[in-house]
Amino acid sequence: MALRLSAGLHFETNGRYGFTPVFNQEIKKGNDVSFYLALPIPVRFGDDQAASLSTGVQVGVSF
Exposed site from 6, 13, 23, 61, fewest CB < 10 Å? Predict the structure, then answer.
């Protein structure tokens, strides 16, 4: 089970823009279903506001 990284560029309608790296890890793999945990870290700039950085947690099921 390897730690994976995905990323995206984001442009919002209110004039902010940025990127979001997402680190994810499969935590339980079965024959028909897998469970994973992801940690998105959105970073935003622009619109005459201070840069922002936040984080979240996602728990998911894939089958």
Answer: 13
